[in-house]
Amino acid sequence: MLILNVLIFSLLSCIVSAQTPDHLKKYTISAPGINATFIPYGARLTNLYVNDRNGVPQDVVLGYDDPADFVRNDQTVHSYIGPIVGRYANRIKNGTFSVRGITSHISENDNMGHDTLHGGTTGYDTRNWTVVSANSTTVTFSLFDQAFEGFPGSVITYATYTVSSGPSWTSRLVSIPLDEPTPIMLANHVYWNLGAFVDSAGSTVLNDTLSMPYAARYIEIDNIEVPTGAIGTVNGTFLDFTSPKQIGRDIDSAINNCGYNCTGYDNAFIIDRPRYSGPESTDLSMLTMKSNVTGIQLDVYTNQQSLQIYTCNNMNGTMPVKQSQQHANSTTYVEKYGCVVIETQDWIDGINHPEWGREMYQIYSVDTNPAVVFAQYDFSIMDD
After folding, report:
1. Residue 58 to residues 116, 196, 202, 217, 321: CA-CA distances in angstroms?
2. Are 144 and 347 in contact (CB under 8 A)?
3. Which secondary-structure segment (H or E) carries 346?
């Protein structure tokens, strides 16, 4: 009988394993007022619940109910929904850079082969990370990058996610180069909707209020969103979020701002902290976003010196929201401007612009400190 029970248990374990591969297994962590779920595929955030003004938990990030749908998305439209992107987030002009006299070429997976986006064809977002440790409030993933996509040298990265009362979600990404000097610039690529699709007003972020008080400059881009090298100022333009304003207030003026024939935001804002705060200090909120629909407020603290803001300009109403976000009688889909991505990172394509002086923040080796991306997301209820 014991042998039979063991055989039955083994069979059931195999069935479960076949139904839910390890890289799609869900890991949920929670603390008072917050609940977050991750999968090893891309070290990806799939759900994040915080309470609205009525004390009702709302899922404020985009994703899929079936983790396998993340894989299907990446094999088709490849929207980067919720993962870590790297080894180098954002764009690299012509997929080419040089480090200490050695030129590397990375797969050009964007704009019909004119640049590299988020680390190349198979970036960190589509890799199966290893679960190092997990408990009720924290989970840590690791990834051993053996010169993926043509980047020089090997790098090991640890991603630790923690939730705490406040409520707060903290992401710590630590990358250690093991041999050759290499660019490293990681970012979380989470699609946010603080309105949680609770009604028609919450189906887009246009009425959400956004503030980035220390983002008075931005990196100018060409019509395929690659930096030109010029640094612009936001004062007097539709890019000015140094004082709180609704995301949709000036968005109709953002014509060709997110690429040719695209209207919306997809911009790298430079963070210039005040004199009493260091360039990598995490003592001040770099971004505040509020939803009048749910009353949920998000404050972002980070050690990074740029914020990439993308207002989901390419969403077209074909992606259904998760069951936790279905509040209407009929299925709700993600519309254009139905979300916003906030990437905490360094200056886009800084490895190809030495005049910016970003080497110490983007090039790492065995002789430097590790590359560390710290981001803390604090949630509260906005003042009415």
Report:
1. 35, 6, 12, 34, 13
2. no
3. none
Structure tokens at 45: 């955030």
Q: Choosing from 108, 189, 327, 359, which is the catalytic residue?
A: 189
CB contact at 8 A, 251 and 263 = yes
CA 19 to chain centre: 28
Residues 6+ apart with CB under 8 A from 364: 175, 177, 181, 182, 183, 184, 370, 371
> Active-site residue among 108, 149, 225, 343?
343
Q: Which residues contact 342 (CB under 8 A, 6 or more apart)?
A: 190, 192, 287, 289, 300, 307, 308, 309
Can you list the pairs that 127-132 forms with residues at least 24 positions away whose Cβ atoms lie under 8 Å?
127/41, 127/42, 128/22, 128/23, 128/40, 128/41, 129/23, 129/40, 129/41, 129/42, 129/43, 129/159, 130/40, 131/27, 131/40, 132/158
Give the whole-angstrom CA distance, residue 264 versus residue 270.
18
Q: In this structure, are residues 24 and 68 in contact, taking their beta carbons and an 8 Å threshold?
A: yes
Do residues 203 and 335 lie in contact, with contact meaning Cβ atoms separated by under 8 Å? yes
Q: For residue 323, what are its two tokens? A: 């069951």
- Report helix, strand or coil for 148: helix
User: Is 335 a known active-site residue?
Assistant: no
d(CA 292, CA 290): 6
Quote the CA–CA distance of 219 and 294 in Å, as a whole number: 33
Strand 209-211: give its sheet, edge to edge: 130-134, 138-146, 154-164, 168-177, 371-381, 296-302, 287-290, 209-211, 245-246
- Nearest residue to 271 (alpha-carbon basis) of 223, 188, 213, 324: 213
Residue type present at position 267 = N
Per-residue pLDDT of the chain in tens (384 residues, 90 and over written 9) = 333 333 333 333 333 334 567 999 999 999 999 999 999 999 999 999 999 999 999 999 999 999 999 999 999 999 999 999 999 999 999 999 999 999 999 999 999 999 999 999 999 999 999 999 999 999 999 999 999 999 999 999 999 999 999 999 999 999 999 999 999 999 999 999 999 999 999 999 999 999 999 999 999 999 999 999 999 999 999 999 999 999 999 999 999 999 999 999 999 999 999 999 999 999 999 999 999 999 999 999 999 999 999 999 999 999 999 999 999 888 899 999 999 999 999 999 999 999 999 999 999 999 999 999 999 999 999 997
- To the query of whether residue 353 is one of the catalytic residues in this protein, the response is no
Q: Which residues pair with 104 in a beta bridge?
A: 97
